[in-house]
C-alpha cells in the first residue's frame, strides 16, 4: 500500500501531496526524502474492460515499475468480479483500491465482492455520495498506487456525489492525461439528470469547469458507452459532444426532454451500491 506525502486523515492513503514509493501498509511516510533517493520512474499498465449487460467500462491501472505492482480498479461490476480477480492475478498485480465514480443506478458495483475475494483491498467513493466505503474521497484528494496517482475532481449533476478521477500530471512519461468521468461525461453525450438528485445546471458547470479545462489531448474514459465508442478526448468532446457544446439553457432543455426509461436494475442497484455492493458492508 502506498503512503503519499502528508496524510489528511488518520488512515489516509490519498492526499494532497506527491506519492512516495514506500512498501508495507503504513510504511515510511516519505522515504525518498528520508533516503535522499529520487522518485522511481513509474510505468503505467492500463486495461479497459467491458460488462456487456449494463454496457459498463471498468478500468484497471497499475504501476508496474514498482516492486509491488500496485493497482486500482475504477467502476467494477459484480457480474465481472471473477474476471477482474483473474486478470489481477495473471498480471501479478497487488490490487489496493476498488473505486467508484458514483452510486451506479444500472448495475451493482463489484467493490463488495472484490473486497471479499482479495483481502486487504479498500473500497473508495466520494463522501458526497453518502455511500458506505472504506475511504471517502473529497475534491483534490489523490489516490496513490506506486508512483502514480489519480486526482479526485468533484463533478456532480448526474448524481450528487459524482467524481472524475484524473491521472497525475507532471510525470516524466509519454502518457497523455486520462480522465475517468463516470457518467458525468459520456462520449458525445452525458449522464441523465432525472434521478439521484440529478441537476442539469450543476452537471453543465461540473463538466465545463472540471473536465473541459483539462488539456485538449486528455483522454476521456467514461463509465458507459451505448454506441460502441471506447475513448475520446477533451478536444473532441469540446467540438462534437451533442449536449455539452450547447449553451446552458439549451442543455437544460435537452436534458428535460430525454424521455429515457429508468434503468431496469435501479431499485436493486441503488440500495446495494449505497452499501458498497451489499456483499461486505463496511
Ligand atoms: N438501459 C440501461 C440504462 C441506460 C441509462 O439510463 N444510462 C444512464 C447511465 S447508467 S445511471 C445514462 O445516464 N444514460 C444517458 C443517456 O443519454 O443514455 C438500463 O436499463 O440498465
Ligand atoms: Fe450513473
TrEMBL record:
GO biological process: glutathione metabolic process
Residue ranges of domain Metallo-beta-lactamase in the record: 55-224
Subcellular location field: Mitochondrion
GO molecular function, one term: sulfur dioxygenase activity
Biological source species: Physcomitrium patens
Gene3D superfamilies reported in the protein's UniProt record: Ribonuclease Z/Hydroxyacylglutathione hydrolase-like
Domain of life: Eukaryota
Protein name according to UniProt: persulfide dioxygenase
Cited Pfam families: Lactamase_B (PF00753)
Keyword Protein biosynthesis: no
Names of required cofactors: Fe(2+)
Family matches, as InterPro entries: Metallo-B-lactamas, Mito_Persulfide_Diox, POD-like_MBL-fold, RibonucZ/Hydroxyglut_hydro
Catalytic activity: S-sulfanylglutathione + O2 + H2O = sulfite + glutathione + 2 H(+)
Gene Ontology cellular component list: mitochondrion
Protein family: Belongs to the metallo-beta-lactamase superfamily. Glyoxalase II family.
Key words of the record: Acetylation, Dioxygenase, Iron, Metal-binding, Mitochondrion, Oxidoreductase, Transit peptide
Amino acid at each position: 500500500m502506498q503512503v503519499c506525502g502528508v496524510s489528511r486523515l488518520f488512515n489516509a492513503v490519498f492526499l494532497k501531496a506527491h506519492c512516495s514509493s514506500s512498501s508495507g501498509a503504513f510504511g515510511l511516510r516519505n522515504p525518498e526524502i528520508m533516503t535522499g533517493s529520487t522518485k522511481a520512474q513509474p510505468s503505467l499498465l492500463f486495461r479497459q474492460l467491458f460488462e456487456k449487460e449494463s454496457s459498463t467500462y471498468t478500468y484497471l491501472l497499475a504501476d508496474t515499475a514498482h516492486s509491488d505492482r500496485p493497482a486500482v480498479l475504477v467502476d467494477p461490476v459484480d457480474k465481472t468480479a471473477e474476471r477482474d480477480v483473474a486478470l489481477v492475478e495473471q498480471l501479478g498485480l497487488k490490487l489496493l483500491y476498488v473505486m467508484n465514480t458514483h452510486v451506479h443506478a444500472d448495475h451493482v458495483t463489484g467493490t463488495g465482492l472484490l473486497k471479499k475475494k482479495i483481502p486487504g483491498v479498500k473500497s473508495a467513493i466520494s463522501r458526497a455520495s453518502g455511500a458506505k466505503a472504506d475511504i471517502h474521497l473529497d475534491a483534490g484528494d489523490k489516490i496513490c498506487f506506486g508512483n502514480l496517482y489519480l486526482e479526485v475532481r468533484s463533478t456532480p449533476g448526474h448524481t450528487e456525489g459524482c467524481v472524475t478521477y484524473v491521472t497525475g500530471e507532471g510525470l516524466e512519461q509519454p502518457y497523455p492525461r486520462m480522465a475517468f468521468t463516470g457518467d458525468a461525461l459520456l462520449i458525445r453525450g452525458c449522464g441523465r439528470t432525472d434521478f439521484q438528485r440529478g441537476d442539469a445546471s450543476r452537471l453543465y458547470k461540473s463538466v465545463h469547469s472540471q473536465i473541459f479545462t483539462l488539456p485538449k489531448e486528455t483522454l476521456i474514459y467514461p463509465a458507459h458507452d451505448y454506441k460502441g465508442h471506447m475513448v475520446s478526448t477533451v478536444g473532441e468532446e469540446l467540438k462534437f459532444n451533442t449536449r455539452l457544446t450547447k449553451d446552458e439553457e439549451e442543455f437544460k432543455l435537452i436534458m428535460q426532454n430525454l424521455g429515457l426509461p429508468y434503468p431496469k436494475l435501479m431499485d436493486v442497484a441503488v440500495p446495494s451500491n449505497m452499501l458498497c455492493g451489499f456483499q461486505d458492508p463496511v
